[in-house]
Amino acid sequence: MPWRGPEYDGEVPTLGWDVLDWISEYLIVPDGPAAGQPLELTREQAQFILNFYRVDPTFDGPAITGRSMVNARAVNRAIYCRPKGHGKSPLLGALAIVEAVGDVILDGWDADGEPVGRPWTSLGFKAKVQVLATSEDQTSNTWDPLLEMIRGSETLIDDYGLDPMETFVGGPRLRLEFATSAGDSREGGRPVFAVFDQTESWRSGNGGIRLAAAVRRNLTKTQGSSIESPNAFSPGDKSVAEASFKAHDLQVKQAAKPRSTSKVTILLDHREAPPETDIYDEKSLKKGLAVAYGDSADVNGGWVNLDRVVEDFWDPDSTVEDSRKFFLNQITEREDSWLSQLELNAVKDSSKVVAPGEAITLGFDGSRGRKKGVTDATALIACRVSDGHIFEPFPQSVWEQPTKWPRSQIWSPPRAEIIAAVDQAFRTWRVVGFYADPATWQSDVATWEAKYGPRLLAKATKANPIEWWMTGNRAGRVAPALKAYQDAVLNGEMTYDGGLYLTAHMLQAHTVVRNGAVIIDKEHPDSSKKIDAAIAAVLAWTARLDAISAGAMKKRKKRAPVKRLR
Hints:
Elements (H helix, E strand, L loop, with lengths): L15 H11 L16 H10 L11 E2 L2 E2 L7 E5 L6 H14 L3 E5 L5 E4 L8 E6 L3 H16 L2 H7 L2 E2 L3 E4 L2 E6 L13 E5 L10 H15 L2 E5 L10 H16 L10 E5 L11 H12 L12 H8 L6 H8 L13 H7 L11 E7 L12 E7 L4 E3 L6 E2 L15 H14 L1 E8 L4 H11 L22 H16 L4 E2 L3 H9 L1 E5 L2 E5 L10 H18 L17
Parallel strand pairs: 3-11, 3-12, 6-9, 6-10, 10-11, 13-17, 15-18
Antiparallel strand pairs: 1-2, 4-5, 7-8, 8-9, 13-14, 14-15, 14-16, 19-20
């Protein structure tokens, strides 16, 4: 029979209840005052497990048909982001053991309509589980408690024939192991589950990017899954954690589109202190820490002593940014950043949809190839006039140089594709303002002015309605535009769609003072951390303000119907 159906609003079928029962029966607390006692998970941890093991309610089973397998799990990647000392690693160690021996693959439904699971080994697979990191010290975070949980449970060892060695755990058609090698040496494996530990520090330079990509490809072969356990990442570091957050946001954005059939297969479970936490007030700080640490905080019945965390938060050798990141679990940025992640989170709204025909303004910041360094990005950003919602108008609205582009070759943005995107925006929406920085795009801006200028309400100048320079000795005009946009974010006068490039570029912009005016810039001329989408957003917002001044918010008069002559 099929799934019994929800018994309360929002209920979905999950194998997580069986996983929780298995953990309470077999696993023990690996260390600390309660070492050796049965492992009792917090409600917060239990909820993560229930979400991670969600299954497709329409699946009719079985898991194996002929030579084909269907894994009906709804989640194939998860991000469990918590502050330092929360206890992420022991939880993931427990799940690594569960994946090796437990009933984690949906095979159908019992007589009561409840999900029935089977272990990987019963489906013909060798249950290979990997704990991965970029250094051996990192792998020990998860691997050490995993070993202690196995070694401390004779019942587990006897029932499943496990042999816990220092560097691997063997058993009948199963193996748990840790690895720290570079990504290309992981190619060709067939794991069914993998733990990625501390992915906020997995970057290209230490092999983390290749490692994550290679293992995910291997998991595709078995329809397996992975969980990564980062602390809050630093925007612009191009870490695996940052990329995973972006991938989740992109899935959510795609699934929210009308008539979309896209699924959200990446589970994001991220707790952070509220943005209004006052780190200079001990009472407010402790309250924020209690939120970030959740059930693990001592004030919530957990094991983390918040008084000690407060002391470490204000350690003289720590920066405010690091303390926010590691203890409040807030995604932070440098001190001179133009806008912060917390400020952007306050105005982020990915649920808004800008319908065709609505009045919008556009902002454009273009680039050409350069002889050295990384070519600047080219960005087309839009703003709805009615409510000031900033958004990336198309799936491809920002064009960046590929990360693996040979430094010896000049990369140029696809001019024809970009021009087509501008034309598509004018066909899709009622564009009432369009400001573009013409640097290196003067001829194209002139063409747009001739083609679209007469229909625009907002005009940069009467002679050049689209041309709006952001460079050169124009600080007297640029600085107020930047300040107006920043104020709109801080005062909640606008929202934005959380676009991946737009978010990154706004966070990567930092303030500088030139000729007595505060403007924004990238960290250095050859930096790969671009800010062009932020510039385009400012231009779109400026065009909106000018369009409103020109009457864009006034109701359009309906034309009287034309009578037919008989």
